[in-house]
């Protein structure tokens, strides 16, 4: 079969077939009387083998080795191809994400495009200072898509930069809440915790809904962040988790302050006092936790808290009794 017919049947151009011949990948086994290349059936099968291996991403050098080296084993090369393909996909995915971010910003001209690109690069900088400046500048520029801010928040490990990013996101409105909701369900604990901190700073009713959902999270840190934020918003659902935080000595001072703020609502006063008293009566609660619960009762108004403190002032645990007596004196002095 002559080269022209081989090209038509194989889909490989005559020019590429000559290139393969120059590299020694496939050589026509015969020549016509006038010197034209003539390919045998075996030559054509080899051409198809070459094309098949090229479709996997092998270079022509690797194709030649695979076909001609009797000792060649494909496992190492396939593993390398997998690695290279993953790297290529990651790079293409990153490019696609960047293009979507630019498109979401709605640039009016190429100057806007360049501005967005510069800010996106700054948000991804290795310098924490540069990332922080970029985060703060997004408020003034008002051109970086909310999606880019959320992505930066969920990946940011520096607390100062993270704070600036959350502030910028909170000022941008509630557009990032859907993405933050995904972050709350992320497999990585750090991503979930960054997400709940960001949601806590968004002053929006939908953010409160997300925080309520976060109270049921399997991640205890997420639950605690959500409880503190909900306590500041006057949401009663946070009470059980806040009391548990006092017992566990996990941000217990902040939790006690949140309980005090919630107890200023007459509708919640007795509920909070009763919850604290019930935990004080729990035999599984240790001495130091009982002292913290007693201190938490200090700022809870109402008769239930006062009666509990009077009884606790005679508690068999001297530390608890002294704490309760001191708290009663403070209450009486008010």
UniProtKB/TrEMBL annotation:
Q: What keyword terms does UniProt attach to this protein?
A: DNA-binding
Any Pfam family the entry gives = HEAT_2
Q: Which GO terms describe its molecular function?
A: DNA binding; DNA-binding transcription factor activity
Domain of life according to the entry: Bacteria
Domain HTH merR-type, by residue range, is 1-69
SMART domains assigned: EZ_HEAT, HTH_MERR
- PROSITE patterns attached here? HTH_MERR_1, HTH_MERR_2
UniProt key word Transferase: no
State the protein's name.
Answer: DNA-binding transcriptional regulator, MerR family
**To which species is this protein native?**
Micromonospora citrea
Recite the lineage of the species.
Bacteria, Bacillati, Actinomycetota, Actinomycetes, Micromonosporales
């Amino acid at each position: 079969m002559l080269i022209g017919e081989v090209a038509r049947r194989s889909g490989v151009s005559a020019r590429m077939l000559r290139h393969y011949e120059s590299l020694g990948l496939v050589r026509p086994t015969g020549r016509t009387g006038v010197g034209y290349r003539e390919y045998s059936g075996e030559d054509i099968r080899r051409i198809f083998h070459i094309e098949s291996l090229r479709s996997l991403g092998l270079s022509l050098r690797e194709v030649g080795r695979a076909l001609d080296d009797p000792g060649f084993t494909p496992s190492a090369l396939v593993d390398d191809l997998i690695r290279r393909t993953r790297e290529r996909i990651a790079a293409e995915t990153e490019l696609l994400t960047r293009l979507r971010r630019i498109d979401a910003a709605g640039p009016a001209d190429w100057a806007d495009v360049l501005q967005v690109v510069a800010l996106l690069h700054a948000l991804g900088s290795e310098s924490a200072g540069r990332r922080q400046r970029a985060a703060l500048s997004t408020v003034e520029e008002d051109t970086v898509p909310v999606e880019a801010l959320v992505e930066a928040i969920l990946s940011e490990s520096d607390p100062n930069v993270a704070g600036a990013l959350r502030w910028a996101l909170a000022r941008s409105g509630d557009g990032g809440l859907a993405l933050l909701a995904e972050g709350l369900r992320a497999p990585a604990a750090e991503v979930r915790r960054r997400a709940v901190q960001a949601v806590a700073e968004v002053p929006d009713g939908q953010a409160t809904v997300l925080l309520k959902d976060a109270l049921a999270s399997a991640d205890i840190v997420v639950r605690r962040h959500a409880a503190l934020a909900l306590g500041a918003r006057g949401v009663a659902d946070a009470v059980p988790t806040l009391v548990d935080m006092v017992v566990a000595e996990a941000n217990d001072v902040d939790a006690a302050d949140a309980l005090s703020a919630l107890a200023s609502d007459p509708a919640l006063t007795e509920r909070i006092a009763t919850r604290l008293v019930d935990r004080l009566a729990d035999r599984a609660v240790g001495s130091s936790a009982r002292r913290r619960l007693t201190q938490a009762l200090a700022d809870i108004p109402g008769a239930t808290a006062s009666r509990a403190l009077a009884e606790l002032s005679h508690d068999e645990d001297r530390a608890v009794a002294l704490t309760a007596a001191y708290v009663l004196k403070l209450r009486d002095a008010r």
